C-alpha cells in the first residue's frame, strides 16, 4: 500500500538530476522505450504528463471520494430525519411531519456531503501515499523540493542495459548530474549541506562524513577528489593566463544562468569577477574552473557561459 | 510551447526555480523585519482589546451591548456577516479560479486562503458570544441532551448556518493545509536549525515530491476544488437565508442568496487587495504579485460590485412594485430615514466607487487600488448594517420604534477582531510560505 518508503530495504539508486522538466520528460520517454524500469521521479512541482509517461494509472481516489460523499448525505438525512421526524417531531409553521419535510433538511445534507467527501478523500490520500505526521522523509537529493528533478532507477532491478550504459544514457539526455549508488537519506538526520557549490566553496578536505551520498559515479563524471596544492596553483595559473585579471571591476555573475550567490563567491575566490573574463574562457580554462571548484562537469559549455557572458558584457 | 504574447508574464524578473524558493523562503529563514514587528505588535494590541471586551461581555452579561428589542441584532451580526463575507475570496480564488484555469490565482491563493480561515475565526466569535453563556456554545450541535430528547431544529436557517460555517472552516483548513505540504517540505529541506527541521518535518508528513504522489495530489486538489465551489456558494446563501426566511420587510426577498454571494466575493476581494498590496510592498513581492494580478482582481471587484449595485436597485424596484406598504416603507426609510447616512455611504462605496475600475489607470495603480479596496471594505460593512438595523428599528408596532447605537464594548469587539485577524496573518507571513512555491514553479516559464 505504501509506495513511498524507498528506504525500507536499504536499496540503492541510480539518480539522474535534471534542471528542466522537458528534459526529464524526454529522458523518461527514452528510457522507457529502451525497456528500462524506472523506480520513480521526484520533482519540486507537479510536472504535467509525467505520471502518464511513467505508466501510472489515474488514481481511484475519486471513487472513494464519491462513496464518502454518499455516506455524508446518508448521515445528514438520518440525523435530521431521526431527530426531527421520528424521535421528537417539531411542528414548524403547521408543516407536515413526514417525508415531505425533507426539503428543509437539504442544506444540512448538502454540507455533510461536502464535509465527508473532503475529509474522507484527504485521509485516503494520506493513507495511500503513506503520509503521516512525524514520518521520516526519503530524499535522494536535498534540492528535490527546490529545483532539482530526479529520475531514480532501483539498482536491484534487473535491467536490460548495464548500469554504466544507463548512466551515460541519462547523461546524454541532459542530466546535469548522474550518481550511481545513491542511498536515500532524510534531512532530519543529516546536518551537512549537500549543495555542490558549498562543497566547492569550502576548501576543507572532503572527509567522507556521509559516504553513502558521496559515492562518485562509475564513469567518474563528478569528481569530488581534492586537488593537491600544486595542482590547484597550476589550474589557477591557467585561469589567470587565459581569462586575465578583473582589474578591480566586478559584474553581477549571478546573471549567468547556472551561477548562484554561492558559486559567484567561489568564482570570486579564484579571481573571476567580470563577464569579460568569463567570455574569454578557453576549453582548458573551463576544465580548470570545473576541477578547482568541483562544478558540474560539462555544464559551463552546455549552458554556454561564453556567449551568455558576451551578451551580458555588451548590454 | 504556445505562448500568447498579448498577456504579460505571470511572474516577472526572470526568476529561476531556485530564485523562487529563495525569495519565498526568505521571511521564514531570516529574522523578522522591523515592519513585521510593528504590524505584529499592533495586531496583538488590538487582540488584547478583543480579549478585554469579550471578557467584560461574559463577566457583565450581554446587556453591555445595545442589542435589545426591537434591534435584537446589531453590530454583532453585522460583523459576523462582514467577516464571513471576507472569508469568501480565499476559497473562491483557489477553487473556482482553479476550475476556470486562471493561472494568475497561483500567486495569491495561499494568502487568500489563510485570510479566509482567519476571517471565519473572527466571524465565529460573534454568534458564539451573542449566546451570552459561551460555555454552552456547543448547544447548537445535534447532541443528545440531559433535558429530555429535544433536538436541534433542522428546519432553521440558523442551524444550517452552524453546519455551513463549520464545514466551510474545516474544508478550507484542509484545502489550505494540503496546498502547504509540498512547500513545507521545501522549507524542511532547506532548514538549518533543529527546531525548524523538526516542525517543518512534522507537518510535511514525509513529502518528497514523487511523481506518484504528485499524480494523486493533483486529483485530490481538483476534487477538493470541485466540491469547494458549491460550498462557497452555499455558505453565504445560507447566511442570507437567516434573513430571507423571516418575514421582516427588507429581508423577506428571494434575491438575497445571489445578492449576498456576489457581495461576499466583492468584499472578499476588497480585503485580499488590501492585504496583498501591503504584503507585496513590505515583502518585496512585486515580481510575484504583478500589476497584472492586481488588474485581474480589480476586474472581479468591478463585476461583483456591479452585480451588488444591480441587486440594490432591483430590491428597491421590487419593493416599489410590490404594492406592499411595509416593504415600501422599509426602503423609503432606508433612503430618507434616520439611517440615511449609512445607506448613502453604502451606495457610494459599493455602487459608485468600484466603477472607477473601468479605467486602465485605476486598475494598474497600486496606491489607488488600495484606497478603493478600503472603501469597498467600509461599504460592505455598511451594507450589512443597513440591512440589519434599518429593517429592525422600525417594528410593525410603532411604539417599539427605537434608535440603535453600538456601545464601546461592541465597537471594541469589532476592532478587536481586526487584531485577531492581523495577528494570525502576521504569524502566517512569518512561519509559512506566503506564495505557493510549487504552483508558481509550474508557471514561471509560461505566459498566460
| Count of beta strands of chain A | 4
Rg of chain A computed from alpha carbons, rounded to a whole number of angstroms: 29 Å
Q: What structural class do helix, strand and pairing data of chain A support? A: alpha+beta
Write the H/E string of chain A, N to C.
EHEHHHEHEHHHHHHHH
Oligomer state equals heterodimer
Just give the CATH class of chain B. Answer: Mainly Alpha
Strand content of chain B: under 5%
Number of helices of chain A: 13
The biggest sheet of chain A amounts to: 4 strands, antiparallel
Structural domain tally of chain A? 2
Range of helix content of chain B: 55-70%
Low-confidence stretches of chain A: 189-224
The strand line-up of the biggest sheet of chain A is: 2-3-1-4
Brief account:
With 315 residues, chain A is α+β, with helices and mostly antiparallel strands.
Explain the overall architecture.
The complex is a heterodimer of chains A (315) and B (448). Chain A is α+β, with helices and mostly antiparallel strands and 315 residues long. Chain A has helices at residues 21-33, 50-53, 61-87, 106-129, 163-172, 196-201, 211-214, 229-243, 261-269, 275-279, 283-293, 299-302, 305-313; strands at residues 13-18, 40-42, 149-154, 177-182. A 4-stranded antiparallel β-sheet of chain A has the order 2-3-1-4. In chain A, helix 8 runs antiparallel to helix 11 (283-293). Chain A is elongated and about 100 Å long. With 448 residues, chain B is mainly alpha-helical. Chain B has one domain (17-143, 150-443): Up-down Bundle (Formate dehydrogenase/DMSO reductase fold), CATH 1.20.1630.10. Chain B is 70% helix and 0% strand. In chain B, helix 2 packs antiparallel against helix 15 (408-431) and helix 9 (256-282) packs antiparallel against helix 10. Classes of the chains: A alpha+beta (315), B mainly alpha (448). At the A-B interface, strand 2, helix 3 and helix 4 of A face helix 1, helix 6, helix 7, helix 8 and helix 16 of B.
Amino acid at each position: 500500500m505504501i509506495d513511498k518508503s524507498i528506504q525500507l530495504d536499504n536499496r540503492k539508486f541510480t539518480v539522474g538530476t535534471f534542471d528542466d522538466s522537458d528534459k526529464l520528460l524526454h529522458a523518461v520517454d527514452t528510457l522507457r522505450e529502451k525497456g528500462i524500469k524506472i523506480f520513480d521521479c521526484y520533482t519540486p512541482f507537479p510536472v504535467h504528463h509525467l505520471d502518464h509517461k511513467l505508466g501510472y494509472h489515474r488514481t481511484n481516489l475519486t471513487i472513494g471520494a464519491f462513496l464518502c460523499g454518499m455516506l455524508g448525505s446518508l448521515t445528514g438525512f438520518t440525523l435530521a430525519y431521526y431527530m426531527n421526524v421520528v424521535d421528537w417531531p417539531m411542528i414548524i409553521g403547521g408543516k407536515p411531519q413526514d417525508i415531505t419535510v425533507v426539503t428543509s433538511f437539504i442544506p444540512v445534507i448538502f454540507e455533510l456531503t461536502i464535509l465527508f467527501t473532503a475529509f474522507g478523500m484527504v485521509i485516503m490520500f494520506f493513507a495511500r501515499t503513506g503520509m503521516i505526521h512525524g514520518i521520516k522523509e526519503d530524499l535522494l537529493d536535498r534540492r528535490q523540493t527546490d529545483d532539482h528533478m530526479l529520475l531514480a532507477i532501483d539498482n536491484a532491478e534487473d535491467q536490460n542495459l548495464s548500469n554504466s550504459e544507463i548512466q551515460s544514457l541519462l547523461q546524454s539526455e541532459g542530466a546535469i548530474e548522474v550518481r550511481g549508488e545513491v542511498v536515500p537519506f532524510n534531512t532530519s538526520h543529516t546536518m551537512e549541506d549537500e549543495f555542490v557549490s558549498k562543497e566547492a566553496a569550502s576548501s576543507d578536505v572532503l572527509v567522507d562524513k556521509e559516504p553513502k551520498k558521496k559515492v562518485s559515479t562509475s564513469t567518474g563524471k563528478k569528481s569530488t577528489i581534492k586537488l593537491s596544492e600544486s595542482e590547484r596553483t597550476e589550474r589557477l595559473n591557467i585561469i589567470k593566463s587565459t581569462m586575465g585579471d578583473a582589474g578591480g571591476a566586478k559584474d553581477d555573475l549571478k546573471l549567468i544562468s547556472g551561477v548562484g550567490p554561492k558559486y559567484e563567491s567561489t568564482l570570486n575566490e579564484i579571481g573571476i569577477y567580470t563577464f569579460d573574463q568569463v567570455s574569454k574562457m578557453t576549453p582548458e580554462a573551463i576544465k580548470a574552473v570545473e576541477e578547482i571548484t568541483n562544478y558540474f562537469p560539462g555544464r559551463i559549455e552546455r549552458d554556454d557561459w561564453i556567449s551568455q557572458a558576451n551578451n551580458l558584457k555588451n548590454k | 510551447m504556445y505562448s500568447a504574447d498579448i498577456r504579460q508574464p505571470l511572474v516577472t524578473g526572470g526568476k529561476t526555480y531556485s530564485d523562487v524558493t529563495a525569495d519565498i523562503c526568505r521571511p521564514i529563514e531570516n529574522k523578522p523585519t522591523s515592519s513585521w514587528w510593528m504590524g505584529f505588535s499592533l495586531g496583538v494590541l488590538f487582540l488584547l482589546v478583543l480579549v478585554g471586551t469579550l471578557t467584560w461581555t461574559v463577566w457583565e452579561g450581554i446587556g453591555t451591548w445595545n442589542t435589545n428589542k426591537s434591534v435584537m441584532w446589531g453590530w454583532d451580526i453585522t460583523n459576523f456577516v462582514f467577516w464571513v463575507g471576507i472569508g469568501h475570496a480565499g476559497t473562491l480564488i483557489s477553487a473556482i479560479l482553479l476550475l476556470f484555469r486562471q493561472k494568475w490565482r497561483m500567486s495569491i491563493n495561499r494568502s487568500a486562503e489563510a485570510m479566509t480561515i482567519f476571517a471565519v475565526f473572527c466571524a465565529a466569535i460573534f454568534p458564539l458570544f451573542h449566546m451570552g453563556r459561551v460555555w454552552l456554545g456547543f448547544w447548537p450541535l445535534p447532541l443528545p441532551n440531559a433535558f429530555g430528547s429535544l433536538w436541534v431544529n433542522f428546519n432553521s436557517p440558523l442551524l444550517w448556518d452552524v453546519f455551513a460555517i463549520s464545514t466551510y472552516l474545516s474544508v478550507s483548513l484542509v484545502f489550505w493545509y494540503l496546498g502547504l505540504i509540498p512547500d513545507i517540505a521545501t522549507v524542511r529541506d532547506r532548514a538549518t536549525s533543529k527546531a525548524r527541521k523538526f516542525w517543518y518535518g512534522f507537518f510535511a508528513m514525509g513529502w518528497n515530491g514523487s511523481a506518484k504522489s504528485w499524480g494523486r495530489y493533483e486529483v485530490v486538489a481538483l476534487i477538493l476544488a470541485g466540491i469547494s465551489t458549491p460550498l462557497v456558494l452555499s455558505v453565504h446563501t445560507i447566511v442570507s437565508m437567516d434573513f430571507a426566511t423571516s418575514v421582516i420587510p427588507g429581508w423577506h426577498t428571494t434575491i438575497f442568496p445571489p445578492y449576498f454571494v456576489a457581495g461576499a466575493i466583492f468584499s472578499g476581494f476588497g480585503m485580499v487587495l488590501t492585504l496583498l498590496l501591503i504584503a507585496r510592498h513590505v515583502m518585496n513581492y512585486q515580481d510575484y504579485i504583478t500589476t497584472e494580478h492586481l488588474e485581474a482582481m480589480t476586474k472581479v471587484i468591478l463585476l461583483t460590485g456591479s452585480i451588488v449595485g444591480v441587486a440594490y436597485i432591483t430590491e428597491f424596484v421590487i419593493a416599489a412594485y410590490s404594492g406592499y406598504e411595509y416593504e415600501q416603507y422599509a426602503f423609503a426609510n432606508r433612503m430618507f430615514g434616520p439611517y440615511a447616512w449609512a445607506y448613502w455611504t453604502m451606495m457610494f462605496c459599493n455602487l459608485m466607487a468600484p466603477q472607477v475600475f473601468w479605467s486602465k489607470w485605476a486598475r494598474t495603480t497600486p496606491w489607488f487600488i488600495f484606497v478603493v479596496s478600503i472603501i469597498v471594505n467600509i461599504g460592505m460593512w455598511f451594507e450589512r448594517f443597513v440591512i440589519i438595523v434599518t429593517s429592525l428599528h422600525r417594528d410593525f408596532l410603532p411604539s417599539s420604534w427605537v434608535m440603535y447605537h453600538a456601545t464601546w464594548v461592541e465597537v471594541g469587539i469589532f476592532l478587536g477582531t481586526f487584531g485577531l485577524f492581523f495577528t494570525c496573518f502576521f504569524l502566517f507571513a512569518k512561519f509559512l510560505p506566503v506564495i505557493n512555491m510549487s504552483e508558481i514553479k509550474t508557471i514561471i516559464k509560461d505566459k498566460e
